[in-house]
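Milestone M4 deliverable, item 7.
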Amino acid sequence: AGASSACAQTVIGFPFNTVKVRLQLGGGVYKSTMQCASHVIRNEGFFGLYKGMTSMMLGQQLTNITLLGSYSQYRRIFDSNYEFVGSNNNSNEHFWTIPLAGCLAVITNSFILCPAELVSVRLQTQNHQTSNISGVSKLETTYSGPVDCVKQIVKEHGFQQGLFTGLWPTISREFVGCLFWFSAYEISRSYFRSVVLPKENRTELYGYEVALCGMASGVSFWSTAFPFDTAKSRLQTQKSVGAGVYRGVFDCIRRVAKEEGIAALYKGYSIAVVRAALTGSSVFFTYEQIRCMLG
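Output delivered:
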């Protein structure tokens, strides 16, 4: 169920993610979301929006399984009344365990997600344009695919220092975002279960109700964690797009806010929220449908 939800999440949301990442890098080239998307399609073809999807697909499958599975395990450790994500028998659950279990789950998850996102971001941005004093310069393609990308990163920077570039901003983003991601989903689902179902004499949520809960979770995640994601994108690409060197996640956030304004930390936010609404609904809808089919 976790793997199926990851496939749906990646296929639906990846083009939005490509646009988001390019907007986050700045450079003064893209003035709007639509301009960025049309530029990619015009210069790199429609499938330019899907560059790096292979590594992200694999990463999302592993992380969804790890994240949803470990979250449920941590919830059961702290709350014996909890069964699993999406169960209608979680009526006596203690909601204080939601952020605690969510935060613990993302630590393990980040070690899987970071390398997958690093490769994806490098592939998404290798033709990214930047503007400088001498005008607009276009980077040459340096990676032929995800495997070549991994080989070059490990060869140049080593395994740990290379593939885990951006680990701390990934942990920071996931820590903050998943606290609200799980909370929004569980609280929304609890409302339908305790208020709507008894009123309409039903025992199960409709698919669109599950999707609405997932939509709330996705929007909550990106609304709270977006500055950390901007820092992650810049840290993971600063050696490949020629940007100034940031010393860490908080140094990056501080310098971006000081040099470009606070609004620069939220470049790509609108497209990210649209993506979050679509992927959040698809993740939990697919997860619960497959789980019900498997019993």
